[in-house]
Amino acid sequence: MEAEVIAVGSEILAGHTRDTNFVTIATAFAREGIALVRHTIVPDDRDALGEVLRAALARSPLVIVTGGLGATPDDVTRRVMATALGRKLIFREPLLDALRKKYAARGVAMNPASEAMALVPAGAQPIENRVGIAPGLLLRTEQSVLISLPGVPGEMERMLVDEVIPLLRSEGVAGRLRSETLRTVGVSETTLAEWVRPLLGEGVQCAYLPGAGRVDLRLWVREAEREEGALRATAQRLSERLGPALYARGDATLEKAVVSLLAQRGLRIAVAESLTGGRIGAALTDVPGSSAVFQGSIVAYANDAKRDLLGVAESTLRQHGAVSGPVAEAMAHGARVALGADLAISATGIAGPAGGTPEKPVGLVHFGMSEARFARSLRYQMGGSRAMIQERCVTVALNMLRLYTIERLDLLWD
Ligand code: ATP
Ligand code: MG
User: Would 310 disulfide with which of 185, 210, 324, 334, CB 3.0-4.6 Å?
Assistant: First the structure.
């Protein structure tokens, strides 16, 4: 099933409001096997909306309109819907009652203009709005279904999830698998592409979505009805091929995967950070429940801090420099002891843009790992801006923790 979205709002076109409703709808539809083929933004203007709406209804079996459904003069959607479909606007008493009750429950008087929200194009079915006031509308034509939802994101999302999707599922339109996301870390895009190519089933396509050392593989098919089986089989084959490079299927983040693996193993961890300035700790604490595994992170940026807070020996600093394997190991060891953790990791490096030398260029990072039986370090040469290097460091650090928990440190040190 192909669908399109029309966002109504001059504020979106002006760049004042981000069209988050579209993202919400697109994400939900992708999950349900509904293919979005077009997205149009129009101002709060009758002619503009009318033109786009007529064109959409002529070509798409499912059209979703968001915004302009309220009772202010700039809200034109219900009127335009009626005109475009040649239907009368009809006053619905039960809707008016419901509106009165909502205002009463909020303790505010309902002004006469708000009564416009009880106007419905003939044949339209109202969609309940449990969060806000304005009800949504569903209208069927011979070839299409037109759904109009409020612009307020919280209301739109609740109505989409609670009313629209269940309805589309009950009609067999939604509920198919059209895409699957396999989330990987530590393997380059080009290598992944070589792995993926021979495993793609008939009709299955793969999009590579890279970011900071992680690559999401989005497998998708055009027609869920016919190709869902091939999609599932491809995802399964590819998951097996990816092995330890695969950290999640679906929505889970690397952060979440790491925290849950550490929790399963009952491990408590500590972090020592220099160039990442707390980002590794921040990534871990983004995950609800991280307190079960995360003891803390010591940000030791200056050499003095590495010495005083982490107990890195002055001689180690002098002999090898702050950006070195021995210092990374000593930092991890120091954090583990200071914070009473089972396992610790560290990162020290040159984020740039200044501060590089021929021997130690910008992007050089040493990571350390320490547990009761060993301390080791790992050297990386990264590219990109300061922010990209820092972000990438978070990925590497998290992946070190992950590989430890799944007993695959051999992938880091053979
Ligand atoms: P109301 O009942 O509040 O009048 P409405 O359906 O008329 O609802 P709008 O007036 O168009 O909706 O928008 C209400 C609020 O929602 C505004 O703050 C607007 O910026 C925001 N909004 C509208 N459309 C979107 C969108 N596509 N994405 C994110 N926010 C949006
Ligand atoms: Mg508006």
Answer: 334
